[in-house]
Specification:
192 residues; mainly beta; five-stranded mixed β-sheet; 0% helix
């Protein structure tokens, strides 16, 4: 079939026929992309057109059933990191191979991005003979991490003097294999 261009007027295409002609049309279900606004970063989303060309799209854009959509891992401002990326309620954060995620459109697409302050993992090793209390303060909020967790970059980590079980004595407390000292007046160590 050759491409035939007609004139559009009053919502009608008019053609001058000079040979046997067939008329066909392709209809596809229309869906929409919604990317909830988020701070401290941005994210690129694009769809393939009928060929191999990528066209960037924004929240509110129309997308067609069967189109392939590419989502790039969000870029974030310094001091922040991606907390999660949800697509239609499913966490896809760990599925950004080579920095992108491909999705074949089968319905409306809703993307939610969570950006958080950059954090570091804190592991508290299991031990017998007492307990250690650890907490951090960030922007005036104190969070207990005695069992481990994520600590925001530049937060102050406090490790308090261990509470010993009867019959046990503290030999040492270490942070990254370096001994730390518990100060006498406050009975705590502060690590920044």
């Amino acid at each position: 079939d050759e491409n035939v261009t007609g004139q559009l007027a009053n919502n009608e295409y008019k053609f001058v026929l000079k040979k046997n002609t067939s008329v066909s049309a392709v209809f596809k279900k229309v869906y929409h992309l919604t990317v909830l606004p988020f701070e401290h970063g941005s994210m690129r989303v694009a769809i393939y057109d009928n060929g191999d060309n990528l066209n960037d799209i924004q929240s509110g854009s129309k997308i067609l059933d069967g189109q392939t959509m590419i989502v790039w891992l969000p870029t974030v401002e310094e001091g922040y990191e991606v907390g999660s990326v949800l697509m239609n309620g499913t966490d896809i954060t760990e599925q950004f191979f080579s920095g992108t995620y491909k999705h074949v459109v089968k319905g409306d697409v809703n993307v939610t991005v969570t950006i958080r302050k950059k954090t570091y993992g804190l592991t508290v090793k299991d031990f017998v003979g007492g307990t250690i209390k650890a907490e951090f303060e960030d922007e005036g909020v104190v969070t207990d991490v005695s069992a481990g967790g994520r600590v925001p970059e530049n937060a102050t980590l406090k490790i308090y003097e261990p509470v010993l079980d009867e019959g046990y004595e503290l030999v040492y407390v270490s942070l990254n294999l370096s001994l730390i000292h518990i100060s006498e007046p406050t009975r705590q160590a502060e690590i920044s």
